[in-house]
Prior knowledge:
Elements: H1 4-18, H2 28-39, H3 55-58, H4 82-85, E1 90-93, E2 96-99, E3 102-109, H5 119-126, H6 132-140, E4 144-146, E5 149-150, E6 162-169, E7 174-175, E8 180-184, E9 188-193, H7 210-218, E10 224-225, E11 234-240, H8 243-254, E12 259-267, E13 274-277, E14 281-285, E15 290-293, E16 302-309, E17 313-320, H9 327-334, H10 364-373, H11 375-381, H12 414-419, H13 443-446, E18 477-483, E19 488-490
Parallel strand pairs: 11-18
Antiparallel strand pairs: 1-2, 2-7, 3-6, 4-5, 4-6, 8-9, 9-11, 10-11, 12-17, 12-18, 13-16, 14-15, 16-17, 18-19
Amino acid sequence: MWCPRCCLFAVRLNAARMSGTASVVGGGDKRKKVEEEEEQQPGVGLRGHGQPPTKKLRNKKSKGGRYVPPPGKKNLGISFGHQHFSETQYYFENGLRKVFPYYFDFQTYCKGRWVGKTLREVFSSEFRVEPIEYYTQAAKAGRIRLNEEPADLNTVLKNNDFMRNTVHRHEPPVTAQPITILTQNQEVVVVDKPASIPVHPCGRFRHNTVIFILGKEHGLTELHTIHRLDRLASGVLMFAKTLEVSKKMDQQVRERQVQKEYVCRVQGEFPDGEIACEEPILVISYKVGVCRVHPTGKPCKTVFQKLSYNGTSSLVRCSPYTGRTHQIRVHLQYLGHPIVNDPVYNTEAWGPNRGRGGTLDKTDDELLKALVDDHRLKESLDLLEVDYQCTGKDDHKGSTNSTPPLVGQTDPFADVRAADEGNNGVEVGRGKASDHSCLEPTAGEREVKPVPVKDTLCGECKLLRKDPSAKDLIMYLHALHYKGLDWEYSSLLPSWAAADWQED
């Protein structure tokens, strides 16, 4: 029999299902409770929740006071394109590739430890790169925004608060040496990376990176990183053009089907014959990016062979069978023959023997402090002015670093990013810049003189930095040869690899 009551229930149930709220049939109170629970979910991740709250949501108020929109969805598919490349432009001076300063937005969601604190307290305790007076002035200028509204530093933070900070960004110069394309086909792009240029955006580097230069000057976008090289290293660097190729190459790497050959110049006379080092390597600080030989480290193996000796240093072939962070450099240090100009593993911070045999006369914390205090290390790696380290993912979609570093000077969210490593975030920049073509710059463009645009709040604008020397831009480590199942790529030997080479 037909029952009005049952029919009405069915209509309500169907309507609820159509609207996606079938679980709240029976009244609006349950739906309201679900919405409140969703609103109280803590904001997690960094810069990886897609677009910020819309104006429509921002204008909505809750009965409990200040309304905080729920976080947006993670956007895993963003890569760099024309709108990113046009943020600024290059100019060339004194053999260096430089970038005009530009305005850039750093974004983050409220962390759980910030809930209940004021913005002022958070900036004072966690973002001490700039004095609180700077953040006060930045907030007054509208450069610090909370849920897309001008921020009051006395505002108490809630779950899911979305913060945006606009900074005047300065990038360190890199070598003006062009990136040579060794091979380009439908599957891969293989280049000979010059020393000093990071692989992808990291720390203070964004436009002065291989990924951005290939995109801006060669029209090569949507590239997937297959492997990485340290910023100061040079040599063969491969990118996949599709995700399928990237996965195929990655599988070959994981299954030890890729043969890698490096050359480096080390201190002293290296022993004759093949020398294998299988000491396990431990990362003692992801934030600073320093490793050491340690029994609890990950297993690895590198085979070395001396190629020549010039009386003071040796040219050594290196064949890493695994791919641990800084593996070649750490194993050479352990053997007592560190790379001649290695700014991390060939310093007195490691003690009188510089880490030979894995000996260390200090704790890991003492070592890290000594390394950070080392002036040469700061200058070579920009340790005080870089932000977060690399993950093992396709980081053309976000920003990571091939040389894990410290907290960033121009990024007030840098230490948060280091703490939240592994989130698939994307940084969104904005600013005025000239249009670009996807061609090599002309001679006239290379001679463009900088037009300084100073920002009244920017501390970097008040500094006069000395250009780095050629020695500051290189470490004697070069990726010479990579070979897989059905491919093989090589680069030319660098000048310092000549048998009779002598350092000036």
